[in-house]
Amino acid sequence: MHFPAFDDFYQRIVFLLPFVANFRSNEFDYKAPERWQDKYPQCGGSDQSPIAISRRKVISLNLPPLVFGLYDELFDDLVTMTNNGHTVEFKVPSTIYGVRPYVTGGLLQDCYDVEAVHFHWGSPQSKGSEHILNGRRYDLEMHIVHRNTKYLTLDEAQNYSDGITVLAVLFKIVRTSPTFYQPGLNEVFSSLLHLGNFNSSYTVQERFTLGSLLGNLDRGNFFTYKGSLTTPPCSPVVQWHVFGEVLPISHQELPKFWQLRDARGLPLQKNFRPLQSQENRLIFYRQAFVPLQQEQLQELIWL
Fold first, then answer.
1. CA–CA gap between residue 179 and residue 46 (Å, rounded)
2. Which of 40, 71, 86, 102 is catalytic?
3. What span, in angstroms and rounded, lies between the C-alpha atoms of 80 and 108?
């Protein structure tokens, strides 16, 4: 005997199963971030990110500049962008020299290889940066995630206080097209049109450099503080570098982020964590470099 209603129900269940399974494998969302700590205790702990940064309330230091190793060398492969239900990201490939870009310098005592790049944004009704700079939330925030080379994997690095450093770049909408050279960002923004559905991926058409994501950014102008991952498990193992210069993004590019969908097929919007308490943490601002005595630098590292 044939039951059309049952057949329709069965087809719906079969259609939804992949989405349910994938959603369970991504066991957090931005609807109730205050509940992350129920499953991930560190999310309710200390030294959490993001925070509000005010130029008037930081400590200016004569820090050495960051060193951006191989940032301006071409990747040896094409980048594949992915919609993972929480953000769009790409794993960073090696450069043409067979190794990945890295960063060191500033307060960093080790070398940190880049692992991945991802973004946080808002909605047509709200800004979407995670950090607030000088009282303002911006439209978009890019995170370039690096792993301390002392550790073999990013998962291992999350277990150590010096495991990860993240470079955070903020963007603001401008009515005219940005004039600086940014082939990497252009490739990223173009790929968004192919990433509407959860778990979709797209391989960009041109090779580019990691440095081209930064355009003409003043790489020596940054704030740095000790914080955490801004998604579960919220491990407090990140040395953050938030650049003080805000880059422009065309008003035509930002809506491409708003069209993406999460694991439930809902709009992937406002994927930023609420501000966390600064507690008694110190935020440093790099000013023009004057060499520090070794004793002074060692003292700062242990603050």
1. 41
2. 86
3. 29
Compute the distance between CA of residue 283 and CA of residue 224 in angstroms, rounded to an integer. 6
- Spot the catalytic one: 102, 112, 138, 151: 151
Residue 2 annotated as catalytic: no
Which CA distances in Å does 286 have to 65, 164, 185, 220, 292? 8, 20, 26, 7, 13
**For residues 164 and 236, is the Cβ–Cβ distance under 8 A?**
no
Q: Which two tokens stand for residue 289?
A: 């470099």
* 34-59: pLDDT as tens digits: 999 999 999 999 999 999 999 999 99
Q: How many other C-beta atoms lie within 10 A of the C-beta of residue 5?
A: 7
Smallest Cα–Cα separation from 129: which of 118, 248, 120? 120
**Contact between residue 113 and residue 143 where contact means Cβ atoms under 8 Å apart:** no
How far apart, in whole angstroms, are the C-alpha atoms of residue 197 and residue 84? Answer: 9
| pLDDT range class, residue 81, cuts 50, 70, 90 | very high
Q: Report how far residue 138's alpha carbon sits from residue 127's, in angstroms, rounded to the nearest whole number.
A: 6
Asked whether the whole model's pTM tops 0.85, one would answer yes
CA distance 7 to 3: 6
CATH for the stretch 47-301: 3.10.200.10
In the chain, where are the structural domains located? Answer: 47-301
Question: Measuring CA to CA, which residue among 103, 117, 112, 113 is closest to residue 64?
Answer: 103
Active site (annotated) includes residue 86: yes
